[in-house]
Design goal:
heterodimer, A: alpha+beta, Beta-Lactamase, Heat Shock Protein 90, 6-stranded antiparallel sheet, 5-stranded antiparallel sheet, B: alpha/beta, Rossmann fold, 2 domains, 7-stranded mixed sheet, 15 strands, 43% helix
């Protein structure tokens, strides 16, 4: 059964993002981009707009400065000219008329009067109270003109005559080099205000003038002028008292911000201030900023909607489908009726495909289960057949054993009868030999020479046959005897055997015999001696033709086993016939050699002894290069 | 929810509601005085003094971190306007009103202010109408009782003065009339003649005609209880008519205008003053230079007294934590507050106890000729 995949596991294995996050990124990036562009535009616009505002303000201040300077110059020139006119006329009636004309021609003056040298009002026009005879020698303008003998424009003060705040322009009247009095005009500050208002081009802008100590001289709010408001504490005014022009922002008591610029009028020390509410100046920017903010809001709202909607139409149905898949993995087949309500065509098709796939999986599973059942039946059948085979095998083995036993009995009988035959053949052979010997000894002289030769041949063959039978008997006997195993000093045994063999050998032969120190072994002493005897005899026999016969007995390690060997320098044999070497009655050599002794049983006999001990025997040789016979005798019982 | 999504929402919220911090909202203080018209001089000077005090207090961190905001109103010298602007100030939530410099205007709003529960602190209203009352009215100028007696005794002490004539402005009769009665009584009790007086309306009465009537009484001295501009004009007129006797004035006349408009006529005029323009105290000298630097003119009575009034009020506000509640009690505790010209102590009735001066105009200056201490 497949384990269903759990969401958490998926998340832990890799950084996977939910679909709605991907969708969010898809929308978020362009929206942030648009918002950033709008903000950038707003900032750019703000910087250029500020420059524009400053420029516009600078232009306005320049105009205001010019127009106010003009006003002051005009006033000074006017009062100066009037002063000249006064001096040229000595008759009081004319002067009264002149004052009246001045008032009518120049609306900037509210009152004009003429002081004598002592400061007493001699002539006047425009005042509401009777001013004639008043002593104005305490007024600053009087003192200034008397001291400087020049025109003077005063600071603000309340007019004694009108009760309004005013500024006076005073000029000395000089006749024949003598100062005969002072001509004074009180200025209408409302008129000054009208003058500067001609420059207020943009709605919302306000321009006003304060004097060198900050008192308002002209202001759109005439009450402030009347109340003698002092704006000396405004930073803009303080700066303007030092610098020529300034431009800055000012925050008023109502937290409203103004773009404010100012300039000082050098001669008079007046300061012109022009202001505009920042909100108005920045109007276009505020609209742009508003649009940016609105778009940012809209972006956020759309983003939120995309989130919600995508969750509703994509994420949730997909999660639903994922749960079905998990169910499917658990082997629980969902029903198509429970298919979620997909609103997207692709997803709907995916859902359909999923259920089609689920159905296909179900069909395949059923088919697989059927095939399985069939396979199981087949397996059972095969198991039954195998059982049958096992039974038959057992039967067969039983029969083999029986046959083997029967065969062994037969072999035994054969061996026994063979032994018996061999044994029984000895007596007649011996009789034949005996009788021929007697005949040859006693009747030799009566027999022809050829008869004697024939008889000798018969006796010789009988003797050979007897030896053959003895060998055969000995070979047969080997099957019957029980091994009497003991530890044998095989080296000593070899040396003694060789010594015994040498005693019956031709003493004239030059034989060189060497024997290594050989490891002992567990074996039947008598049989091993016979084997060694046969092998040494073999070696002596095939070295007969050698001037010096060399026979060496040693051992070597082959595959961890001790292999004893007997090596000679005899005539050797062809390895092609090595397979026949240990077969009974087999001769590899010429009959001449065979005649020198050998029944064809020797090596077969040795092989049987070694086999009886559980060992192996083999030979290596090359024609005319001697031969080496190896044999092993395992130490364990065998 | 993705982090970026959260950040967007946070950004929007932050954009919506920036701000919100500790209470640094200004403490509203009203100021009412006549600022316009021929008698506006005292009011303007008072306002300038008050503004200077407020600017200095705010520059030092205000009251517990809250600045004082002075709301200035012009009472136009009309009782009706005074009541209207004060009601307006109360409506705006001021903790106190500095004003009115003239007693008549103070008198006009006296009842109304007592009922409103807002403290009225006057710089220069000295009328004895308000003396000895446990109310919400406070002042930093001594009452007429003390001023009037001081002047009457001084005049009585001058050689050759037997008959004095009183001239007083009905526009501020709450001050002028009561002061004249005190002077009259005191002067008579000293053995003088003070039976004749002339009441006039500033801006309405023809002062030249009035001057003729005054001179016709042939007094040894004339006592003016009027605004400086009127004192200046009447002094000119009586001198034009050949009057050679001594001229005296109430503290109201002690302004720059008296000298500027009075010309040579006011030379020798003597004023019972609550203000010494050349007081040697360090506080006053410093104030004079600060005021001159700020407004380009030397301070006068109104400026100095309203400056003091704001300082006294600020001291009391510090005790109430900037609140209107308890302000009257805090003001009554004012004792030996360092004023510009000596210490200020306020009694349980809200009246101040401090010295007065006799000042003479000489060559465009106010010179002290006598100091009258309150203990005498």
């Amino acid at each position: 059964m497949i384990k269903p995949v759990v969401n958490d596991e998926i998340r832990h294995t890799r950084h996977l993002s939910p679909l709605r996050v991907l969708l969010f990124r898809l929308f978020f990036v362009p929206m942030v981009g648009i918002s950033l562009i709008l903000i950038g535009m707003t900032v750019y616009h703000a910087s250029t707009l500020l420059d524009e505002i400053r420029h516009e303000q600078q232009t306005r201040i320049n105009s205001l400065t010019q127009i106010t300077d003009q006003y002051i110059d005009d006033t000074s020139n006017l009062i100066h000219t009037l002063g000249h006119m006064f001096s040229s006329d000595n008759e009081g009636v004319h002067r009264t008329e002149m004052l009246k004309n001045i008032r009518e021609d120049y609306p900037r003056f509210t009152t004009v009067y003429f002081l004598d040298r002592n400061g007493k009002i001699v002539l006047e026009n425009g005042s509401m109270v009777n001013m004639l005879g008043l002593d104005l020698s305490g007024e600053p303008f009087y003192k200034a003109v008397i001291n400087t003998k020049d025109s003077y424009v005063s600071e603000t003060f309340i007019s004694l005559e009108t009760g309004l705040l005013t500024i006076t322009a005073a000029t000395p009247v000089i006749s024949d080099g003598q100062m005969i009095g002072i001509l004074v005009g009180e200025l209408d500050l409302a008129y000054l205000q009208k003058v500067i208002e001609t420059v207020n081009l943009k709605p919302g802008t306000q321009s006003f003038i304060v004097d060198r100590v900050g008192n308002i001289i002209a202001h759109p709010n005439t009450i402030w002028v009347e109340e003698q408001r002092n704006l000396g504490s405004l930073p803009i005014v303080r700066k303007s008292q030092l610098a020529f022009t300034t431009s800055s922002f000012y925050y008023d008591e109502n937290q409203q911000t103004y773009v404010i610029g100012s300039a000082s009028i050098s001669d008079q020390g007046w300061i012109i201030v022009t202001s505009q509410p920042l909100s108005q100046a920045m109007g276009p920017l505020i609209v742009l900023g508003g649009i940016s903010l609105l778009l940012a809001f809209l972006s956020a709202a759309i983003l939120h909607w995309v989130q919600t909607y995508s969750r509703h139409i994509i994420s949730e149905p997909l999660a639903h489908l994922a749960r079905y898949t998990d169910q499917l993995a658990e082997g629980d087949y969902p029903l198509e009726q429970t298919l979620p309500d997909f609103q997207i065509e692709e997803l709907h098709r995916l859902g359909k495909s999923f259920f089609a796939m689920a159905e296909a999986v179900r069909q395949h599973t059923i088919a697989l289960e059927n095939a399985n059942a069939r396979l199981q039946v087949q397996v059972q059948e095969r198991e039954l057949a195998e059982e049958e085979i096992r039974k038959l095998n057992a039967e067969l083995e039983k029969r083999v054993r029986q046959r083997t036993a029967e065969l062994e009995v037969a072999v035994n009988e054969l061996e026994t009868s063979s032994y018996t035959i061999s044994h029984d053949l000895r007596a007649p052979l011996r009789a034949i030999h005996g009788y021929i010997s007697i005949l040859l000894e006693e009747d030799r002289y009566r027999l022809s020479s050829s008869s004697v030769l024939y008889l000798e041949k018969v006796r010789e063959n009988a003797l050979t046959m007897g030896t053959l039978v003895d060998s055969l008997l000995a070979f047969q006997r080997l099957n019957r005897i029980q091994l009497k195993k003991q530890t044998i000093d095989i080296e000593t045994l070899a040396r003694r055997t060789f010594a015994a063999m040498l005693s019956i050998e031709n003493p004239e032969r030059n034989i060189e015999f060497t024997c290594d120190a050989l490891p002992p072994c567990q074996a039947d002493t008598d049989l091993v001696r016979q084997a060694l005897s046969a092998l040494i005899s073999n070696a002596l026999k095939f070295t007969h033709s050698r001037v010096v016969a060399r026979i060496h007995i040693g051992f070597t390690q082959i595959d961890g086993r001790v292999a004893y060997f007997i090596r000679d320098n005899g005539i050797g044999f062809d390895m092609r016939y090595s397979s026949k070497l240990f077969a009974i009655f087999q001769h590899l050599h010429s009959p001449s050699l065979r005649e020198s002794g050998g029944t064809g049983v020797g090596l077969a006999f040795v092989q049987r002894i070694i086999a009886k001990h559980g060992g192996d025997i083999w030979a290596e040789s090359e024609i005319d290069k001697g031969a080496t016979f190896y044999f092993t005798i395992p130490n364990h019982a065998g | 929810m993705p982090v970026a999504y959260k950040l967007t929402i946070l950004f929007v919220i932050a954009a919506l509601g920036l701000g919100g911090c500790a209470d640094t909202s200004p403490i509203l203080v009203g100021f009412s005085a006549q600022l316009t018209g021929r008698q506006g001089e005292l009011g303007v000077a008072s306002r300038n003094g008050a503004e200077l005090a407020v600017e200095q207090i705010n520059a030092r961190g205000g009251i517990d971190g809250r600045p004082i905001q002075l709301i200035v109103m012009d009472d136009q010298g009309e009782p009706e306007t005074a009541r209207r602007v004060d009601a307006e100030l109360v409506k705006q939530g001021v903790v106190a009103i500095i004003g009115h410099p003239t007693s008549e205007q103070t008198s006009a709003v006296f009842e109304q202010m007592n009922q409103s529960g807002v403290v009225l602190l006057s710089s220069t209203s000295s009328s004895s109408k308000f003396t000895g009352q446990d109310d919400l009215f406070f002042r930093v100028i001594p009452s007429n009782e003390f001023i009037g007696k001081a002047l009457a005794r001084y005049i009585a002490g001058q050689p050759g003065i037997q008959k004095i004539v009183g001239v007083y402005d009905l526009n501020n009769k709450a001050f002028t009339e009561t002061l004249w009665f005190i002077i009259q009584n005191e002067f008579v009790s000293e053995g003088g003649d003070a039976r004749v007086d002339f009441a006039f309306g500033s801006g309405k009465t023809d002062l030249q005609t009035l001057a003729g009537e005054i001179v016709a009484q042939k007094p040894d001295a004339i006592v003016f209880m009027a605004a400086a501009v009127d004192v200046a004009l009447m002094s000119q007129y009586v001198r034009q008519l050949g009057f050679e006797g001594r001229l005296f004035s109430s503290p109201w006349g002690q302004t720059r205008e008296l000298i500027e408009k009075g010309g040579k006529s006011v030379n020798g005029l003597e004023i019972v003053a609550v203000y010494n323009p050349s007081h040697p105290s360090t506080a006053y000298v410093q104030f004079t230079s600060q005021f001159s630097e700020r407004f380009g003119r030397a301070p006068t009575l109104g400026a100095s007294h309203s400056y003091e009034a704001v300082k006294v009020l600020a001291d009391a506000l510090k005790q109430t934590g900037g609140q209107a509640a308890g302000l009257a009690d805090a003001l009554k505790q004012t004792s030996n507050f360092p004023g510009l010209q000596g210490n200020i102590s306020i009694d349980e009735f809200g009246d101040v106890v401090r010295e007065v001066y006799i000042v003479r105009v000489e060559d465009g200056n106010f010179n002290i000729v006598e100091i009258v201490s309150p203990n005498e």
